[in-house]
């Protein structure tokens, strides 16, 4: 089970309330369009002609339900009692105020197909979703909280929450898509009997556990698994119904064709009704016309009563056996007592660690519990949910034994705080830092006059080096062992490297260019004229091997000369293809994409060979697939650091300057200013929902292709890229640009046609194709496909059909990793991307760059773009991660706290708690408050470290406040010791807290020795 959690906001003049009503009672469902934030994504959504919706009230773990009609629902969404219309707590009328948190219970599509063709499974699937709903809403009531006090500093447990459920059977394209939406009202009743707003940030972080609960239910629920077995079905490793999985892709392909039809019909309607927007009834009519278009002998408009039979006809066309009864299967399950709990714990830790890359390797108790839940789900166990709790708890506890606690001195912390790190990741950070420390050796750059002379010889007459490029070339060609060159997109790094190569050649030194991918290395090698290869090819030649263990963790090993090579069966004889000598320079291009494992191996090779390392790239562009921070780690230790600041790619110098501000805004106000300027330039395209965003991207491809120019379409997810790719392909077929007479199957059963733009996804030396290289399909033969390089009609390759089926997919659109390093004429960036995706996407196009934002107003669109620009400080070291964890803890509400304001702290008196019990309680609260102050101070330090500036007055005020609380703790602690000598000194924890980074480093050192 999969599903997102979206925040519905009030909007201008309570627009959010009106949209919620349309969502609940009218329109059609487009929940399959993912990753768009806010109410804007959910316009025109609904579920038929229901007269009411079901509300579930959960109070102290007890669930009751009733129905709300349209008027009652409107009052409920507005944060009021649905029957009396009384306000629930303080009314917040800001357009940015949350109304609802919308959680989707989304199952694999094969479940909906099963329910459509089998009445027994339809009944059991609904029952499974109902059981899951109960689990989710009770988890919400138990785990979420409200906030109280000044600044929301106090965490208040919840006595009561209310949830409205909406049930839907299909997508807007009229595919079977059974799913539910759970609307959690932000108005919640605390244990103190007061209504206030739920802490939505905690809810968003809890959702990883909610999704894990869905997966657990789908794969372990005895009644559901038994129903599948008695009807002849089983689940595959991905959780799909194995016997129906092959029907999912053809049905989805038809869905994309319907989307293309819908876009065309909508365009026709708008041309006939200029200046108008279609209402829900018009959209529903268009949906049904789009479904029936191009289907012979089908009704022009689909009738509700005919829908199910029409879909069954589709399934019969795909596979006639799909609708035939199946023989019962024997149910085979693993007993709880037979599972390997340590292996499940290792898998849980790998799951949490792999999802922590964006947070420097930090994860929360929720993240680890979600990993444990997913590990149990995939274990083969079949049991009722209550019977699995002990197993999940034990797996989580075993996983915790292999973590480093970054907040070890904190007695009390909310479970959503990301304060843990896998011991292996922490050890890897320490190991990499130590290896770079050992390599650090200062040297001298090449003289600037020499660099200027060389540039005159190797560069075209109209190309010159700016000062930053000259400094970078001089450093790379110099004798510093570690060199770091950072710079924004379009800064001319390739031009600089051509000069550096020539300068090294004069000294008899070799320049070897490596990159995270073979494609990037080949591009750099051609442009620079140097030996170029993928970084992994260099490391493999020097004996490094990598893979995954049974738990899924990445494992790197090293062959020594004379060892048997498990890959080839032969004996490893040392590097043969890429030998390095002392003084050679290894340049890592696109170095921001290098992960910690790979960087550590490279540092070891450099130490053994005497070669120097230069990392050239931008840590603010696309991140590595694994843990980031390698380039920043080396930059901190490099004795030659050059930052390029001039941008040469764009024809418009004003836009070039704007991209520098977009790259790393100092604050959200700065990000809003950049977004405002982008909007004024016409570089933000506002749309009303995700469907329109997709249509805009598809239209942009055809608009630019019509002028024989290339456009990059950048999406937030691979799923969205696939949908856009297939929509473009379908429209090209309709326009006669592609013909379906000859086709091949691509990755994920995508249809590949002659003329399609595709990407290869695996390096293949025999076929001479590279991972992420872009091609056009020239011809599809009986045994192979002829590819021609995009932009070079003379560069052709042949790949077997077997390779295409596994490693070729459509590439009209891609995520940021697919477009990193490319330069195009134009670029369109879809909604929902992160800071790297926005920056990389908005710097690909030489002529035009545009970001799509979902919003009902220009201000809302600008805010979405500004939010995408914001990124946290990079967590390079363990100390960085400790600071970040403390900062997060400082922002969180706590179960108990003394006043946080300076005026309150100034009034703290030693005689405030009058007796021993009160003193002990006061000391515990004050220690928590002190920890929060330390976290805020650490956060200011982290901001200073990341951006070179901080609010000194804010820091000074926090430190004064901290000192006053410390004095009060010490004085009251001494008084408490005099009256209760048997109690340990409660003032000590704040001192341990200050020493926490050293304690953590000691633990990490211990962990790293075992690696």
Compact summary:
With 1011 residues, the chain is of the alpha/beta class. It is built from 34 helices and 32 strands.
List keywords for this structure.
1011 residues, alpha/beta, nine-stranded antiparallel β-sheet, 34 helices, 45% helix
Report what the structure shows.
Strands 1, 2, 3, 4, 5, 6, 7, 8 and 9 form a nine-stranded antiparallel beta sheet that branches. This protein has a six-stranded parallel beta sheet with strand order 15-14-18-19-13-20, with helices on both faces. With 1011 residues, it is an alpha/beta fold. The protein contains 34 helices and 32 strands.
Count every beta strand, where a strand is a DSSP E run of 2 or more residues.
32
Radius of gyration: 30 Å
- Give the helix tally: 34
Average of per-residue pLDDT values: 83
Percent strand: 15-25%
Helix content: 40-55%
What is the CA–CA distance across the termini? 36 Å
Which structural class do the helices and strands define? alpha/beta
Shape, please? globular
Main sheet makeup: 9 strands, antiparallel
What low-confidence regions span 5 or more consecutive residues with pLDDT below 50? 30-50, 897-912, 942-951, 981-1001, 1003-1011
């Amino acid at each position: 089970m999969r599903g997102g959690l979206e925040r519905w906001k009030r909007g201008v003049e309570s627009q959010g309330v009106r949209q919620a009503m349309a969502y609940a009672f009218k329109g059609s469902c487009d929940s399959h369009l993912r990753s768009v934030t806010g109410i804007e994504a959910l316009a025109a959504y609904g579920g038929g002609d229901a007269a009411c919706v079901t509300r579930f009230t959960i109070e102290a773990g007890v669930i009751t339900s009733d129905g709300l009609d349209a008027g009652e629902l409107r009052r409920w969404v507005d944060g009021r009692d649905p029957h009396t219309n009384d306000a629930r707590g303080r009314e917040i009328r800001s357009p940015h105020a949350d109304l609802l948190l919308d959680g989707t219970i989304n199952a694999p599509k094969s479940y909906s197909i099963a329910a459509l063709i089998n009445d027994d499974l339809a009944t059991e699937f609904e029952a499974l979703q109902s059981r899951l709903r109960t689990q989710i809403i009770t988890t919400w009531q138990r785990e979420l909280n409200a906030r109280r006090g000044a600044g929301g500093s106090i965490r208040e447990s919840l006595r009561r929450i209310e949830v409205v459920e909406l049930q839907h059977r299909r997508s807007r394209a009229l595919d079977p898509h059974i799913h539910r939406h759970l609307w959690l009202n932000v108005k919640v009743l605390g244990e103190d009997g007061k209504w206030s707003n739920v802490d939505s940030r905690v809810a968003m972080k809890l959702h990883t556990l909610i999704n894990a609960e869905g997966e657990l239910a789908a794969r372990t629920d005895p009644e559901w698994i038994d129903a599948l077995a008695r009807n002849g079905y089983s689940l595959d490793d991905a959780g799909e119904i194995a016997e129906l999985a092959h029907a999912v892709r053809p049905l989805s392909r038809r869905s994309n064709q319907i989307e293309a039809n819908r876009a065309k019909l909508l365009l026709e309607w708008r041309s006939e009704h200029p200046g108008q927007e279609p209402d829900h009834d018009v959209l529903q009519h268009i949906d049904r016309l789009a479904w029936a278009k191009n289907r012979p002998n089908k009704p022009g408009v689909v009738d509700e009563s005919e829908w199910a039979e029409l879909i069954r006809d589709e399934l019969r066309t795909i596979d006639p056996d799909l609708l035939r009864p199946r023989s019962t299967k024997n149910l085979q399950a693993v007993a709880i007592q037979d599972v390997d709990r340590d292996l499940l714990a290792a898998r849980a830790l790998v799951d949490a660690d792999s999802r922590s890359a964006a947070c420097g390797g930090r994860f929360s108790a929720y993240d680890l519990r979600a990993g444990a839940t997913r590990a149990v789900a995939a274990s083969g166990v079949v049991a009722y949910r209550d019977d699995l709790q002990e197993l999940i708890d034990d797996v989580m506890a075993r996983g915790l034994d292999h973590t480093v606690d970054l907040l070890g001195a904190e007695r009390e912390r909310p479970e959503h705080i990301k304060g843990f790190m896998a011991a292996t990741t922490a050890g890897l950070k320490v190991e990499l830092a130590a290896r770079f420390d050992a390599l650090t050796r200062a040297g001298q750059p090449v003289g600037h006059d020499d660099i200027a002379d060389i540039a005159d010889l190797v560069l075209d007459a109209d190309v010159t080096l700016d000062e930053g490029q000259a400094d970078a070339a001089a450093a790379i060609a110099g004798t510093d062992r570690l060199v770091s060159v950072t710079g924004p997109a379009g800064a001319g790094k390739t031009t600089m490297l051509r000069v550096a190569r020539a300068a090294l050649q004069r000294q008899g030194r070799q320049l070897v260019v490596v990159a995270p991918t073979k494609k990037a290395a080949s591009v750099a090698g051609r442009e620079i004229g140097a030996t170029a290869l993928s970084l992994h090819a260099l490391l493999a030649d020097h004996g490094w091997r990598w893979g995954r263990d049974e738990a899924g963790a990445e494992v790197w090993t090293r062959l020594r000369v004379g060892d048997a090579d498990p890959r080839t069966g032969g004996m490893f004889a040392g590097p043969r293809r890429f030998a390095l000598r002392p003084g050679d320079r290894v340049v890592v291009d696109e170095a921001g994409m290098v992960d910690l494992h790979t960087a550590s191996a490279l540092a070891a090779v450099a130490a053994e060979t005497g070669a120097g390392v230069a990392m050239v790239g931008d840590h603010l562009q696309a991140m590595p697939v694994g843990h980031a921070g390698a380039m920043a780690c080396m930059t901190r230790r490099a004795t030659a650091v050059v930052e390029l600041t001039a941008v040469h790619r764009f024809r418009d110098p004003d836009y070039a300057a704007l991209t520098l501000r977009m790259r790393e805004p100092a604050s959200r106000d700065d990000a809003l200013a950049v977004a405002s300027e982008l909007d004024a330039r016409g570089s933000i395209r506002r749309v009303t929902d995700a469907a329109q965003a997709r249509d805009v991207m598809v239209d942009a491809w055809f608009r630019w292709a019509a002028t024989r120019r290339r456009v990059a379409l950048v999406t937030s997810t691979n799923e969205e890229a696939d949908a856009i790719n297939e929509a473009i392909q379908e429209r090209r077929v309709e326009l006669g640009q592609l013909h379906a007479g000859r086709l091949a199957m691509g990755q994920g059963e995508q249809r590949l046609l002659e003329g399609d733009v595709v990407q290869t996804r695996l390096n293949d030396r025999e076929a001479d194709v590279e991972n992420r290289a872009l091609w056009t399909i020239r011809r599809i033969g009986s045994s192979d496909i002829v590819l021609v390089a995009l932009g070079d009609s003379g560069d052709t390759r042949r790949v077997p059909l077997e390779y295409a089926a596994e490693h070729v997919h459509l590439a009209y659109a891609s995520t940021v990793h697919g477009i990193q390093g490319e330069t195009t004429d134009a670029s369109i960036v879809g909604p929902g991307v992160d800071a790297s995706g926005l920056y990389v996407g908005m710097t690909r196009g030489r002529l035009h760059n545009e970001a799509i934002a979902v919003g009902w107003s220009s201000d809302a669109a600008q805010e979405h773009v500004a939010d995408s620009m914001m990124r946290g400080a990079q967590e390079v070291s363990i100390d960085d991660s400790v600071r970040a964890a403390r900062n997060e803890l400082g922002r969180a509400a706590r179960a108990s706290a003394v006043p946080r304001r300076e005026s309150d702290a100034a009034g703290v008196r030693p005689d405030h708690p009058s007796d021993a019990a009160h003193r002990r309680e006061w000391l515990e609260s004050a220690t928590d408050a002190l920890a929060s102050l330390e976290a805020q101070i650490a956060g200011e330090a982290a901001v200073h470290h990341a951006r070179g500036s901080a609010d000194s007055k804010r820091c000074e005020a926090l430190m004064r406040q901290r000192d006053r609380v410390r004095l009060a703790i010490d004085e009251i602690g001494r008084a408490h010791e005099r009256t209760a000598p048997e109690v340990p000194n409660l003032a000590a924890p704040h001192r341990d807290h200050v020493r926490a980074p050293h304690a953590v480093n000691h633990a990490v050192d211990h962990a790293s020795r075992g690696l």
